[in-house]
Amino acid sequence: MSRTPVVSFEAQDQGIQVGQNYGSIKTEFHLPVERPETPPQPCANIPFSRDPDFVDRGDILDQIDQRCSEPAGRVALVGLGGVGKSQLAIEYAHRIAAGQPDKWVFWVHAGTKARVEEGFRMIADAVKLAGRNQPKADISRLVYSWLSNERNGEWILVLDSADDGDVFYNVDHASSATSGDTGERRPFATYLPQSRNGSILITTRNKDLAFRLTGRRQNMIDVGPMAQADALSLLEKKLGTPANPDVAADLVEALDLVPLAISQAAAYIQARAPRTSVEKYLADFRKNEGRRARLLRYDGGELRREGGASNAILMTWRMSFEHIQSKRPSAADLLSLMSFFDPQGIPGWVLRDGMSDDSGGTTNNLLDDNTDTDDNSDGDVDDGFEDDVAMLRDYCLIATTGTGDEFEMHGLVQLSTKKWLEEFARRETFEQRFIERLGASFPTPEYENWAMCQGLFAHVQVALDYRPSGETAATWADLLQNGGQYAWLQGQYRVAQQMAGKAREVNQRIFGREDVATLASVSLFAAILMAQGKWSEAEKLQVQVIEARKTKLGADHPDTLTSMNNLAYAWKAQGRDVDALVLMEDYAQARRRVLGEAHPQTLQSLAAVVDWKSEITG
């Protein structure tokens, strides 16, 4: 006789318990039904408090309000990191919360997919969405449906720091934990409603993404550095005390009128008061590039920046650099090259030539030798260059001037880029590339080249601060020689003397004292001294050059003769009339012998001989 086993369940037992079974078991799970929740009243979930130091910047807030008041309105604040986009959004969100209490205000940090998903989960919790706690709940779809339902009231959604297009348009979004069905692949942008009862405010560094999310250029508001009056107001508020107006104005201008840099400077000054002041900070900032970088790395903390985000302006821009480097390395190369030019009037034609190699293709990325750079595999250098420019403009790191083929950058962006390059030990590489490109582009300063010289001269002046090594040093010396000669012809004697002096120093170190290039630098330096009336110093150098050129080039070489002419005038200016006349006669005979009786230089020297003789004889 078979016996059926008895299975007993105690009060604490849960789940399925089976003793012995000779058939099949069918199990059903019945989860508890969610209790209906009372619909909440509209509220604002702004994660940042209102800033008591906020400075209203013209009509930007009015522009935001106008666009957000339209049905299904969308507006994007676009600008460089640190220009105050999020601060404007915070202030606007608080004004809406205070002035329209019946309107929902939602805030989503949109820097990564994970943060967007977290933000939508918070919205679902705030409005108590039914079904949100189910294991397979598609939070994005649930929130989208709720926002699209006009019966749920009016709302505004802030997407802060929406800088990465992949967050919104990468099809892998739907495979995340919020999607439920891992087979579905919808980009997150499709979960942003276009309903009449809601509006979306976006802050972004990416102009291209701003256009894609808003659909219209008219819905993009460019946020640049502050007006000087606003910048001074911000500095005073952050310091908590008035500063010398002239010094304060110089400081905010030195900081490129960038709000984050101004707030950072004020925090630094406050933290070190009374041993530091606005005057001391400015003086330290102006000393050299290293001091500026040290000050701009200071992170004093900021209550109204996303957790983990640095308040140091150099670190803020680094995020943009690294994103560009990962997406388009050739654009990172172009930005790196541009950072060594004068920030204004950067010539596109010089850059375009500088980004091509001998084979006609674009240069390889220099920050990561293993990076696959096939963005321009068809070999069309110009198209690749334009794509690089477009990306840098989209991220507000550069801008075009009125001519279209010239660019400009903020000086602090250039400094930040250089410091970023230093971390990869690549600064010298791009500095040398800058010297080589500028050296190849700056012409000899004949009269017909003056217009081109003028357009490039500011960049030659920047090159004075560099110290290239190796083969590039000779190029640098040649560039400074031509730049010094142009400055001398234009009457800019101080900078001409600096350039000629450095060219002389480098040529002498590389080629020696008697080399032709060295003698040319010495001769130019002497001519610049003469132009300033420093005859005694110039005379010593000219004597040195004449003797060396006679030995090296010959007595009748044009360079030797030029030195004779210069020395004759130096003696004449010092009252050595007889010596000057004798030397000028030798010079005139040599010119007649080499160039002929009717050559203008021969005639000019003969005329000088006649005039000088008459002065001596009376």
From TrEMBL:
Residues 69-239 form the NB-ARC domain. InterPro entries: NB-ARC (IPR002182), NLR-like (IPR053137), P-loop_NTPase (IPR027417), TPR-like_helical_dom_sf (IPR011990). GO terms for molecular function: ADP binding. Residues 360-383 are annotated as: Disordered. Residues 369-383 have a biased composition (Acidic residues). This is Kinesin light chain. It comes from Dichotomopilus funicola. The lineage of its organism: Eukaryota, Fungi, Dikarya, Ascomycota, Pezizomycotina.
